[in-house]
Amino acid sequence: MSAEATRPRGTRAARTRAPRVGFVSLGCPKALVDSERILTKLRSEGYQVSPSYESADLVVVNTCGFIDAAVDESLDAIGEALEHNGRVIVTGCLGARPERILERHPQVLKVTGPQRYEEVVSAVHAHLPPAHDPFVDLVPPQGVRLTPRHYAYLKISEGCNNRCSFCVIPSMRGRLASRPIGEVLREAERLAAAGVKELLVISQDTSAYGADLRYAGGEWRGGEWQTRFIDLARALGSLGVWVRLHYVYPYPHVDQVIPLMAERRVLPYLDIPFQHGSPAVLKRMRRPAHAENTLARIAHWRAQCPDLTLRSTFIVGFPGETEAEFEELLAWLEEAQLDRVGCFKYSPVEGAAANALARHVPPAVQEERYARFMERAAAISARRLRRRVGRTLRVLVDAVADGAASARSEADAPEIDGMVRIADAGRVRVGEFADVEIVGSSAYDLVAECLSSRDSSRATS
Ligand code: SF4
To answer: Three-state DSSP class for 189?
Structure first.
């Protein structure tokens, strides 16, 4: 979900009957879910969501503070909202550092930190009291969502117990706080009943789900489930929708989910932020599971589930990264043969422990390593996609325009992965599954011809 999709446009005008709130949502899917929760609460109280600055009575900006570029984008977004509307409440990760915001934008009405839903809503009440109208107070049972109708993010926990040296999220979002399993499953059930066909499980550390609750039991559909990664995967796998797991770390207990993937109970897709292939760099990064032999684990998973898609992100030019360690990363990547790969050049974040590490890598070297890494990753991606040509795949259609469609297979998460382009989209419809034959491939995308389309609640053949 991009910020643009939720950013109001234009200038402010007179207030309409129901109070209207504009919303700018920046950052990762976890921030997006925070935005959805705030909007759900406001809608349930009779507020309307304004598509433009012009018609909004005030604007809430949900910021990101992950890296310096995100901080700049957030500060610019606040400035834009102030310029076009003038009444702005700020929340989200950057809100954990209010001095950064107030220094540049002292006129904002209120600054709150991440996950401070109540504070945001109270600030809206203070500056724009709710209207009491029983008809506009109605809100759909699945809540207000910013994603298309056919997919939804399912946030299972907040915070993180890890202490990666390049990251300040734990200091912003706090320690791991899992949602009880019954609550998560009931939300998933409501989403599926409302027509959602793909659930994307998100958190900071999905494999750690429930550790803070000591894997407490919960009731759902008459059965007992534990607040635990594998129980969550099993239960979601019974809903008959696509279930995609993000932000999983390669701990040994993750092996348990692979048979569910082989049976297509959950999608054979794992998003694992490996970040590097050199054990020495991973240790300096203080990454969870850095001592695991991940290459052996990947080989083991693929032996059980050959269609498994692996997505990951990496950081190049981390402080102290030598040419030999970078070469180790390239060799690791070549052996791992990951399907989907994103890469960042390391940049210091205010307050992160890695800032104090010795031997920061010069920008020109970072740039050169980034280019080499992406060239290697693109070649692997192209090779792996070519192997899909000639196969029949089930895809979920995201958009149709001018007779063509963009869709995603089980190997493609929305927004971050490639897509399947269908040239003859006459028979397919947005939000429906279609069966296609793959007829071509590029570095990141597939080209397909349509075999059939169906509006099916079943996600598998
Ligand atoms: S796992 Fe590491 S990078 Fe991810 S949120 Fe936790 S500390 Fe940050």
So the answer is: helix
Average pLDDT, the chain: 88
Residue in the structure block whose two tokens are 């894997």: 215
Cα–Cα distance for residue pair 276/270, rounded to 1 Å: 17
pLDDT in the model for residue 57: 92
H/E element, 407: strand 404-408
Which of 205, 206, 212 is the pocket-test mutation for ligand 1 (most atoms within 8 Å of CB)? 205
| pLDDT of 144 above 90 | no
> Is the shortest distance between the CB of 167 and ligand 1 below 6 Å?
yes
Phi, psi of 411 (to 5 degrees): -90, 0
Rounded Cα gap, residues 108 and 89, in angstroms: 6
Q: Predicted confidence band at 333 (pLDDT cuts at 50, 70, 90)? A: very high
Residue type at 307 in one-letter notation: D
**Cβ count near 393 (within 10 Å):** 20
Whether 337 and 387 have beta carbons less than 8 Å apart is answered as no
Best residue among 28, 64, 162 to mutate for probing ligand 1's pocket (most ligand atoms within 8 Å of CB) is 162
Confidence band (pLDDT; 50, 70, 90) for 33? confident
Q: Is the CB of 164 under 6 A from ligand 1?
A: yes
Q: Is 18 exposed, middle or buried (0-12, 13-18, 19+ CB in 10 A)?
A: middle
User: Rounded to whole angstroms, how far apart are CA atoms 42 and 49?
Assistant: 9
Q: Which two tokens stand for residue 201?
A: 């499980």
Q: Which of 65, 38, 49 is nearest to 7 (CA)?
A: 49
What is the value of pTM for the model shown? 0.75
Hey, which of 131-135, 290-294, 366-370 has the most confident mean pLDDT? Answer: 366-370
